[in-house]
Amino acid sequence: MLKSYEAIYDHGRIQWLSEPPKVEHFKMLVVVEQSETSVSSEHKQKRRTPPPELKNSIHYLDDALKPVLSETEWEASFERTAAQCAGDPEAFK
């Protein structure tokens, strides 16, 4: 059975454009697509240059790195977990 996979052959190396075949050894039938521009340069440009509509679309939240628990709450949580690991039934309430 024949299955098709897209890849770029560049100086002796194969770069799969999709999921590669799930076999170690296989026979290949190679069809070469020729165009005026290099396929590998088109591929590299597409893979490394984000689309223009994404420009300035990432916004960082200033409070994203604020801790969820205060240091006191974290210490109490840590002590409760340690008590639970030690088998203290009161620590589970």
Could you please describe the fold and organization of this structure?
With 93 residues, this protein is α+β, with helices and mostly antiparallel strands. The chain has 2 domains: 7-49, no CATH class; 66-92. The chain contains 2 helices and 2 strands. The protein has helices at residues 39-48, 71-86, and strands at 7-10, 13-16. Strands 1-2 form a two-stranded antiparallel ribbon. Strand 1 (7-10) and strand 2 (13-16) form a beta hairpin. It is elongated, with a radius of gyration of 27 Å. The model has no long low-confidence stretch (mean pLDDT 79).
Q: Outline the biggest β-sheet.
A: 2 strands, antiparallel
Strand order of the largest sheet: 1-2
Low-pLDDT runs = none
Mean pLDDT: 79
Tell me the β content. 5-15%
Topology as a string of helices (H) and strands (E): EEHH
Q: Structurally, how many domains make up the residues? A: 2
| Strand tally | 2
Name the structural class.
Answer: alpha+beta
DSSP helix fraction: 25-40%
